[in-house]
Amino acid sequence: MARVAAQDRRQQLIDAAIRVAERDGIAATTTRRIATEAGASLATVHYCFRSKQQLFEEVLRAIITELSEAAQGDIRPGPDARTLLHDGLRALWEIVEKEPGKQQLTYELTHYALRQPGMESFARWQYETSYAACAAHLEGIAAAAGIAWSLPMPVLARMLMTVIDGVVLGWLVDRDSPTAVAALDSLADLFATLAVPPA
Amino acid sequence: MARVAAQDRRQQLIDAAIRVAERDGIAATTTRRIATEAGASLATVHYCFRSKQQLFEEVLRAIITELSEAAQGDIRPGPDARTLLHDGLRALWEIVEKEPGKQQLTYELTHYALRQPGMESFARWQYETSYAACAAHLEGIAAAAGIAWSLPMPVLARMLMTVIDGVVLGWLVDRDSPTAVAALDSLADLFATLAVPPA
DNA sequence: AAGCGTCTTGGACAACTGACTCAGTCAGGG
DNA sequence: CCCTGACTGAGTCAGTTGTCCAAGACGCTT
Q1: DSSP H/E element including A195
Q2: Tag placement on chain A: N or C end, fewer CB within 10 Å?
Q3: Residue at B113 is within a domain
Q4: A7: exposed, middle or buried (C-beta count within 10 Å: 0-12, 13-18, 19+)?
Q5: Is residue B167 part of a domain?
Q6: B-contacting residues in A 118-157 (Cβ below 8 Å)
């Protein structure tokens, strides 16, 4: 094992943990597997992190940060809110279909965090971050299309997140892309009816 | 321990397993805890079930069956599709808020089944059952309100399930009932616009 | 009442995996 | 050349699972 700064080794272990969790699920993400995946010894894991809990917290942080960055789709000026909504969701959908393991992992992490005493805040943070991203996206659309939304932003953001979560979850189970995309498109259509002329 | 027919004892163990899983999560649902919860000995578990896997399969079957039965809300004749949709979702929401543990468990079970080799079919079955229940409900509404739906039923059913899943999942994380209900109501409103006069 | 299946149990076993510890080794910068 | 930080082998200890057993308890039939 090459000698590496502890900070770098930590990052390697976090990356390895994410790979294992994506592939095998969080339940199967043990310190041993993480160590093997990273090509390090088990003891190294405990040298770099005080506990598995701490490692997992870093993993969660990394994934949530990565996700919220990936969701920062640029909004190209478009004809109307409906088109912008469709484009945004389609772009998101491409990412989802490309990395099903990562999506599955985010849900698993949510439930894991909800169950783990002292980690509930991570689940909440995950969703707050997501809602914020949805809100930003919707405000970007309003600005680009010159419209206003006919519902309060917190409710709107939750509705959008709801739609995304629901469609992704359903698709993860049966992988029925045509129906999932059809549902997504129709929901986007419905959503677009909430766009109104600015006050 | 009172003497009980093996068949009844099996049911008791399944019920106990569900209680433990609701309370502590599936990951923490061990054979020993199940036995304790049921007030039976560990040996009884293995007397009644060939393996933990078999017990879990029965648990899944029981929960999915129970859920689909709970979803069979009766549709009272109402003025319009919008009202019927709202009533149905509100009724569902009452159940959700009353038994958050059960909801959390269903999601965990989905992901558990998706990860467990040879149990993916349970996850698919779970969602097929749910979609069927959604479709039945929507058709009931159409009949009761004398309307038709402007989208194919498979897509519609998935959209409804999407909305339910998404709202419940979001609520499980932050328990923000007002916003969740607001989102649910608005989504029901949107959904209602898909009701059209019959052909 | 005796007999005989059907349940029930405590206790044990081996095999495994989990997180975590620690004394000690090694490499490279000063 | 030595010291600090990186690394590790070899453990500890606890938990879970599947399996088995010998023994006992219960209730139904004859």
Answers
A1: strand A195-196
A2: C
A3: yes
A4: exposed
A5: yes
A6: 123-124, 126-128, 151-152, 154-155
Strand C positions closer than 7 A to protein CB? 6-12, 17-23, 27-28
pLDDT in tens, B62-106: 998 888 887 777 677 767 999 999 999 999 999 999 999 999 999
One domain, residues B89 and B119: yes
Q: Is B173 on the interface with A (CB under 8 A)?
A: yes
- Ranges assigned E (strand) in chain B: 148-149, 195-196
Q: Is B164 on the interface with A (CB under 8 A)?
A: yes
CB contact under 8 Å between A166 and B169, yes or no, is: yes
Range of the domain at B13: 1-49
CA–CA distance from A148 to each of A156, A168, B3, B32, B193 (Å)?
12, 27, 68, 57, 20
Whether B181 has its CB under 8 Å from any CB of chain A: the answer is: no
User: pLDDT per residue over A35-80, tens digit each?
Assistant: 999 999 999 999 999 999 999 999 999 998 888 887 777 777 767 9
Report the CATH number that the domain containing residue A21 is assigned in CATH. 1.10.10
Using the structure, give the distance in angstroms from the CA atom of B39 to the C1' atom of C5, rounded to a whole number: 24
Q: The domain that contains A95 carries what CATH number?
A: 1.10.357.10
Write out the two tokens for A90: 């389609």
Shortest CB distance from A186 goes to which of B104, B151, B172? B151
